[in-house]
Design brief:
The chain is of the alpha/beta class. The longest helix has 20 residues, at about 325-344. It starts with a strand and ends with a helix. Keywords: Acyltransferase, Lipid A biosynthesis, Lipid biosynthesis, Lipid metabolism, Repeat, Transferase.
């Protein structure tokens, strides 16, 4: 896709300095700018690059005054960083704005598709599925029976949505995500063989949720596994059966949440955190990376360590831990002195 400097300036409400008809078809950092690319300047320390960049168009602040000659066409705006972010969003919307049903793909006769839907090749839409308006389903997506998907949601290639799952509006499900697989439910029998417990619940994902690539969310044993509005899940996260994650909570990669734990609102959970089952994590909790959580956490706590304990206590203990060899040496020396005194 190509855009002229004039078209970009119109989107941003900016002023052109240079050739308004020049075209760009890609984005670049200002120090790596190439012909045909669009870049931006917001950080003053990158100002020298405006005179050497090969980018065809650069977004700059209205207060930018060049000190020497340059070749790049400028678009002057109130806030260069904010405007460049707006262009990124606009470009993404245009790039993803596909419509129509590709072949081969399968759509059940009982499924309902809204307006302006895109369905990529080799995708499968099961029975009684209800898909909203402007939903984008990329190739090789599987959607099981009785699934509901709200308006403006995007499912990227290879996502698997099991039966009875409910997905809200304006969600993003990235490639390889698996939503609604059976929870890890087994019961030991008398002969030592683990018998599978049927998982008859579902998964509910509310509006404005992002699910990262290869993240898995298990269906509930009974009831629902619930991901509340505005939650952002990174790649390769495991969410167990009957878990509930409160709205606007963000969780980094490789975190595992065992079954039936409840996580509050607006929490921030670092990468590789392990959360045991049947726990309650309060609101506004901060859990540092690689922490192991085996107890309930109250609102507003900051947690680190395995097993995790208070953030400040952990830091104090870690100072002593680093000094442990010196402390042991001093202790040995004192023991020798005491022994010598006793002998005298």
């Amino acid at each position: 896709m190509k855009f002229t400097a004039n078209q970009i300036a119109e989107i941003l409400g900016g002023d052109i300095v240079g050739d308004g008809d020049i075209e760009v078809f890609k984005l670049s950092k200002i120090e790596e700018g190439e012909e045909g690319s669009l870049t931006f300047l917001s950080n003053p320390k990158y100002t020298p690059f405006i005179y050497s960049t090969k980018a065809s168009v650069a977004i700059v602040g209205k207060n930018f005054t060049p000190e020497k000659e340059f070749e790049t066409t400028l678009i002057k705006v109130e806030d260069a960083y904010e405007s460049f972010a707006l262009i990124l969003e606009y470009y993404s919307q245009v790039k993803l704005n596909k419509i129509g049903i590709e072949t081969p793909s399968f759509v059940s006769d009982s499924a309902t598709l809204g307006d302006a839907v895109y369905l990529g090749a080799f995708s499968h839409i099961g029975s009684e599925v209800n898909i909203g308006n402007n939903v984008k389903i990329y190739p090789n997506v599987y959607i099981g029976d009785n699934v509901t998907i709200g308006d403006n949601t995007i499912l990227f290639s290879g996502a698997k949505i099991y039966s009875e799952t409910e997905i809200g509006k304006n969600c993003v499900i990235n490639s390889g995500a698996i939503i609604g697989a059976d929870g890890f439910g087994f019961a030991p029998s008398k002969d030592g063989i683990y018998a599978k417990i049927p998982q008859i619940g579902n998964v509910i994902i509310e509006d404005y949720v992002d699910i990262g690539a290869a993240t898995t969310i298990d269906r509930a044993t009974m009831g629902s596994t619930i991901i509340r509005k505005g939650v952002k899940l990174d790649n390769q996260i495991q969410v167990g059966h009957n878990v509930e994650i409160g709205k606007n909570t963000v969780i980094a990669a490789q975190t595992g949440i065992a079954g039936s734990s409840k996580i509050g609102e607006s929490c921030m959970i670092g990468g590789q955190v392990g959360i045991a089952g049947h726990l309650i994590i309060g609101n506004n909790v901060r859990i540092q990376a690689q922490s192991g959580i085996g107890r309930n956490i109250k609102d507003n706590e900051i947690i680190q360590g395995t097993p995790a304990f208070g953030y400040n206590d952990f830091n104090k203990s870690y100072v002593y831990f680093k000094k442990l060899p010196d402390l042991v040496a001093k202790l040995n020396s004192l023991e020798k002195e005491i022994k010598a005194l006793k002998e005298k």
